[in-house]
Amino acid sequence: MATTLHELHRPLGSTGLIVSPLGLGTVKLGRDQGVKYPNGFRIPDDEQARQLIALARDLGINLIDTAPAYGLSEQRLGSLLRGQRDHWVVVSKVGEEFVDGQSHFDFSPAHTRRSVDRSLQRLRTDRIDLVLVHSDGRDLEILQHSGVYETLADLKREGKIVGYGLSGKTVEGGLFALEQGDCAMVTYNLNEQSERPVLDYAQSHAKGILVKKALASGHVCLKTGEDPVRASFELLFAHPGVGAAIIGTINPNHLSDNVRTAAAVLSQQR
Description:
Elements: E1 10-11, E2 18-19, E3 22-25, H1 27-30, H2 46-58, E4 63-65, H3 73-80, E5 89-94, E6 96-99, E7 102-105, H4 109-123, E8 128-134, H5 139-145, H6 148-157, E9 161-167, H7 171-180, E10 183-187, H8 196-205, E11 208-212, H9 228-237, E12 244-247, H10 252-269
Parallel strand pairs: 3-4, 3-12, 4-5, 5-8, 8-9, 9-10, 10-11, 11-12
Antiparallel strand pairs: 1-2, 6-7
Helix pairs in contact: 3-4, 7-8, 9-10
């Protein structure tokens, strides 16, 4: 039975990207304000961050998720991934800025293009594999009326990004995002499964799905004696539409345990 994810990589819809079933979320590498976790944490220093990235790679993770709204995350990854860029499938976002403890949103074509160019610079790369619209919850309105999706399509044609989609909050937004784009990032966990129709659509139309809050941001709890991580991964990976789950941890033991559990679940389901 697999104990790492090296042999378990899979296509992300029809993007052409091959991803590990778990991805590393990096909000905690760059931001400790306004985050919804049950426990406080300290942003890791450069050596701790380097060790975390190295561990993720050793465990078979090749997917890494960041965003301009994650504080210094993009800048730090630019340095941390130097010399190993081709190993990683990098996901970033557009639309949300986090300044002085507050989120601000701008989905205009000009800001979208400026944001992607800035992310390329920060990440020290010539392409971003996947760029998602970082929605404030008005998914359909943003996708249909702001020009952000058309701009991302242009950036894809220009080769600056490989694929694009939505990190949203509604079924309607997720479905539209997949109809017109490549991928949707949805909330799907033991507590919250309302976006399942987006997973179903992705499966039948060969579109990409990334799952956020797979462990309910650390809030999942079950009956005594049940393993919430295993139960979460059994739910997620039972759905063939799921490409990968993004797990935002800076704890090496949690990362190793999550990978071991996911590998066991996926090996059983094969």
